[in-house]
Predict the 3D structure of the following.
Amino acid sequence: MAFKPLANLRSATGIATPKLAVWWLLVSEIVIFGGVLASYLMHRLAHPEFGMYAAHTNTIAGAVNTFVLLTSSLTAVLAHQAAETGDGKKAARYLVFTIIGALMFLTIKGFEWNYEISHGYTISANAFWAFYYTAAGIHAGHVIAGAIVMAFVAWDAAQGKELHRVELAGIYWHFVDLVWIFLFPLLYIAK
Amino acid sequence: MSVAHDHDHGHDDAHGGHHHHEPTFMERYIIPTDHKYIAQQYLWTGMFMALFGGFYAYLFRMQMAFPDMWIPFFGRLSAMEYNAAITQHGSVMIFWVAMPVLIAAFGNFLIPLMIGADDMVFPRLNRLSYQLFLLSAIILIASWFVPNGAFGGAWTAYPPLSGDGNYSLTPMGSSMWLVAVAVEFAAFLVGGINFIVTAMNARAPGMRWNDVPMIVWMICIASLLFMASVGPLIAGAVMLFFDQNLGTNFFDPRRGGDPILWQHLFWFFGHPEVYVVLLPATGMVAEIVPVFARKKLFAYDSVLYTAIGTGVLSFFVWAHHQFVAGIDPRMANVFTITTVLISIPIAEMIFLYIATLYGGSIRFTTPMLWALGVVFSFLIGGVTGIYRGASGADMYFHDTYFVVAHFHFTFFPIAFIGTFAGFTYWFPKMFGRMMNDTLGKVHFWGTMISFHGIFLPLFATGLGGDHRRIYNYNHFADLATPDLQMLRIISTVSLLILIAFQFVFIYNTFKSLFWGPIAGTNPWKATTLEWTTPENPPSHGNWPPNAMPSVYRGAYEYSVPGRDEDYWPQNVPNKAG
Amino acid sequence: MQLYLLPGSTYAGDIDSLVLLITGIVGFWYVVTNLMFFYLLWRYRAVEGQKALYVTGHEPDLHRWIAWPHYLIIACDVVLIVGAVRVWYHIKQNLPEAGETVRVVGQQWAWSFQHPGKDGLLDTPDDIKTVDEMHVQVGQVVHAKLESRDVLHSFSVPVFRLKQDVIPGRVITAWFEATVPGVYDIQCAEMCGIGHGIMAARIHVETPEEHQAWIAQASPQI
Amino acid sequence: MSHSDTDATDHGDHGHAAAHGHGGGHGHGAAHEPAFYIRIWGILLVLLVISVLGPELEIQIVTLTTAFGIAFVKAYLVAKHFMHLDVERPIVWYALTTSLAFMVLFFAAVSPDVMEHEGTNWENVAAKAEIERALREGEGHHGEAPHGDASHGDASHGEAGHAAPAAHGSGGGH
């Protein structure tokens, strides 16, 4: 196991060091997504034609994806709960469910994009589709990153190691879910 | 470098998982996790990049003074190369010199030592941060050699020029520049989180918030500013990258895009960025001045509040870079008010530093001279900023050499004078040897005088109407006057002198590195924790695991009445001391 | 040495006065701060056997030295803001009635100008189109409709103290009233590509007679 | 901050006592029973259904409240109960809301330039022309795909007047 400095074990704020780092990570993520979404919102409010383009998005697919992410958030929090009770195997199992959720999300997204692109709604079609693919694409990147991280965490947790990381992966995953909660109405519902 | 690691480490470490062994060459220099070696990596990489930044400055200053002349070591500078030179000079100096040296190198070196920790809280993340940074530097350097050359659309990269290869004529250079900048941001986000968490959580027992040395605060505030402001620009960089390579039109008005949006995304980051590099430099002043004035920092809390105030206000001023860049003129009034108001905390900070001198016993060593040089030169940069913040006057000064002179009077004192101050001050701790004081003073005076020689004339040419980024003034009848040309030549000659004096520094550094007199652990008789390590330079873990320091008092207890010694280290218990 | 450009528009003097006001205020602070700085450096240089004072900086009689300048700076800031906003408002927000409207189009790397011609209206057949050469009449308010064909440019006439970026996709109206006849530089002040350094034009400020003569001579044959 | 001897001693002791909280603050009894999380999840799903069905009524105010109002409620529930912000130290909450506040600031200060298409002495003719073009196109061939290839300058920019960069060709090829 890698060397862990004493510094890592101190906690002057009362928040465990790794968790504090995840919170700061989320602060920096908020401003990244904030930048995209603020830019999108300015265009969305000023350009009536965006509603016309948004009509071509697939609300059902978006809603199903929201359902998938909400459910994967649930399994993530259940994994955390299991980890709190020290049951690494159970935590790992729940994390695997969460990863499956992430993969389902990406699969649905893939079919959806495939359909849209094949109908000419490409990223370069106009400003709406550009924002649509960019915002959802950055989000999808986070989904992929989250799935990979959770795979590692689940591997360790199954052997009863580094159980505190289950919570950290969960916090990150809930954030990914939160972003989608806003992306869904912004990109799909507002027509 | 030379001190043997003969200390007997206690292996009965209560915390477990903490083991010491002699690092191999690989572990020490190629994949180190020790914060001190990562700091050195950042330091040397930053200084290496400074050579490129300086060379670019040399190229375009030569072109300014002697248009279309054959430039020694290069040849003739074409208009395209000129644009690339100014762009890369700006990017390199800010992102690949000021940021890594001021924040990453000094932050890495100082934070764990000053708060009494054995390392950063995430050593491997720390290594990743440097590796990302190195990758970004490699991408940037590679971008200078791609077909059509390096990106030349100014460091602000305003689209549509930067977004369309048909406009910039450097499609590859633009994209690679953008990727390099984005990777660099990722590196500093990772590093910044590490700094903040370390300073928040890993402080030595007993160290309260107002016992923390000022530079640790400053680096943390700077990291916070960076973290909270860079997001929109990262988003913008993705969007601009898509504009360049996927045919989107986020910033191109030909199909619903808006170039003004990029300006906002850029400057929302770009202005706090100024304070990101300023604050660590002022932190160094706050460390060095008390040591050599043998005096407590004047009003610690007030210094901290001015830093926080500056940091918060810096989020409200960004559009003063855009007064005439197409924003709605009504918004300019708001930003004039916030911009002029930022003079209040910054001026107060300078006053507090000057007040620290009052009643002191001032020793003019080389680090002290540099620290005072920061205050003196930055003052010029500060007051000339008022001209730019006042919208009515900025209309004339915008994008003239007055601006160039102004921000060099802020950035040079920060990034170079500040770095020299920190470097000469902490050199004994970093490398265990003393630098040569005489050579240091020669370097100081040569650099200071020639630096003022470069930029004071540029205030005058700016007032005379010289615009920035102009390849050759002979195309502008009003600017091609002998008077203005003479000022440009004075400036260029001063630059050559400044460059010449840097060889004194390089010589002094390498000579001292290998043959300088061995320094004790606390050569300056300073109070902060980094000077209390048993070994010099500190070995891995900084202190023996069973003798980690505890803190009993503030960071600046100098000349305390009733004590024989005029300094009282933070880790000395009251009764035993 | 002639560094100071002549003020060539009605508001150039306002900007110059504002610059002088700022110079007065910040000059005062600069001198005072430096006097204090060097006095303290000299007065408290290390002397053998003399120990430094131990003060925290929170003693009221010492902190006063920070607090009073602090209030004074706030007062100065108010003066600066009022001065700056007044000038800004007059030049950028206020738009006096146009005597003549000229369309200014920036492109890589030239300026083209569309003067209204004899009838005083734009987009009529008698418009006079020129490249890198603008003609205006002294004492007349000119509206410049700034447009760009490609990237950002900046319409800058240093003698007028006027600068306004030109944004593709937008029409931005700037105004000026020239006061001194002559020929001056128009410069592009925003990085616009390789040819940024050669994107110069000249503005001809003419007396009414000269201006009429130029219109007569330059008008297109219809 | 003056440290009298007694002060400093106290503070030293205090420091030692507070030190070395191994992984301190982990958890703080944040975990509820699984049933609790499943209940929250149920509420979230109900909200999701409302937010999808609400806009079907095609009343703008209903769309806005159901789509965005509910998004905030959902976000609140996830942040509070799943991320356990309710039992987290306040500083985390401050940090997250501060960064959100900066984004609100960004939006507020940028929208006069980007969201508005005209203002004091300026007009965004390109954006107006784009809206007009898109709406006309939308009426013309309803439901059809937009331009598949978006090579620059292919749109009918003629109406955009002078400012619309009809003469794009001048940009390249220098």
Remarks:
- The CA atoms of residues 11 and 94 of chain A lie 29 Å apart.
- Residues 127-158 of chain A form the longest helix (32 residues).
